[in-house]
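Onboarding guide, step 5: your first structure request.
Type a short instruction followed by the sequence, for example:

Predict the 3D structure of this protein.
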Amino acid sequence: MEPLKQAYDLELTDNNHGQGWAFGRPVGITTDQWPRSRSNGLPMAHLWTILVPEVYRVKGQDFVAISFFQADDHTADTIDGVEDLITNLTEVNHTDAENFWVSLSRYANHRHPQEIYLEDIIGGGWALIWLTEAEFHGESTPLPDKDNSVHPNYAVEEWGSTCFITDKPAQFIKQVTRTDDPNIGKALTEWADEDDENAYVPMFSTKGDVLKLDRFHAKNHFGGTANPIQAMPEFSPFYIEFEEALGDANMGGGNGQIDLLNNNFDWACG
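The system replies with structure tokens like these:
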């Protein structure tokens, strides 16, 4: 794997730069492969799909982009049998909601081969899917059918993280090369040795103040200086950090980080 020598900021733009989008719909997956909540089976909210810079393609150069989704598993009412069906492919006999279980079973048995399910420390569900170039340039995925994707006894909350609530027009993303960032290629750590010139420099530290690292505050970006709202995760240099505005993620006013190399996810509220 090549050493990292560059970081990239991600900015929302009105123009299609071909480097991804927030909101909108995913590409490269079938409707049956749209990630589903492990709690209630609802199709997750699509937050963003982003082209990954070449040096951050840690799953191999065949996988050039990532799509990210969120569910409300930490607050949603649970439907018995959903998690077991998805996780263990168990058969569920509920004739009163046959269409729902058939739809959920299609997802469970035909998940995208690059889907990575992530669960945060409060039980929230997230899904990351790596896409090939052909998938990234593919057609937009139609929404799942609501009548078959929602259990008949379940009420969809108006504020929830599901595709039926967050289906909005895409906002395009452009990548901007970051300059003069001393933390490119360095693993994230909260307790850095400020006397070690090769150590990661936290944004809010004596050395960070001297280097004016607060200029990277509240950025969506690949690599470089991080700005977690609370504690710094111990992540590899191959990470993406994103704010709530990128796809209207529900993180309590905070932001999130994904370690692409180790499939780890962390977020904190404001």
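Each response can be followed by summary notes, for example: The chain has two domains: 24-167, 177-270.
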